[in-house]
Amino acid sequence: MCSAWLWSSTIFVMIFISIFFIIPHPPPNSTTWPWPQVATSMACLLLPLTIITLIHFLPLLILHHDHHDNNNLPKGSFGWPLLGETLGFLNPHPSTSLGAFLQDHCSRKVFRSHLFLSPTLVSCDQELNYFILQNEGKLFECIYPKPIHGILGNVSMLVVVGDTHRRLRNVSLSLVNVTKSNPEFLHDVEMHDCNCDYEIMVWETAGAVL
What sections of the protein cross the membrane (predicted)? Predict the structure, then answer.
């Protein structure tokens, strides 16, 4: 409801501004409006707004219809057209807090949203998340939105599934096995870390590096 009101208000403001800045006005010495130019300007303005409005509200109408067929569908908001609530979801926050996105939805453990150009269900329930992780590959399949594939790559361990994911996971776990967790190995890692910190401090005080 809040999202629909916000979007309707945005359309009203854009139309109001267009009346004064986009639609041509009659010359100062004339009282006749240039109606052909007015009609063209209104068509160029209202056509994109109509298309964007349909794109925004059509999923809402479809899911609203599905909501009557399935009462288990959680409530939520789709946010802005096309972007949804992606910007709020990606908004940085301290690691000691949940962030404004989850705090705004904390009244529901599972809620509906629109993230990364696709309708999404967000779960904040610990038991449900544990159940999903335990049944990954059985009842649930790990799928990330297409923009995530473009950022991480198609062979990232976070986006691949099946045997490929299993092989990459074994490679990662082999780096922290028992033989590499002994005190001597950890001591060497700490020494290298201290050396890296020292080199960074030297670079910071050296000025420009050619």
Answer: 5-23, 35-63
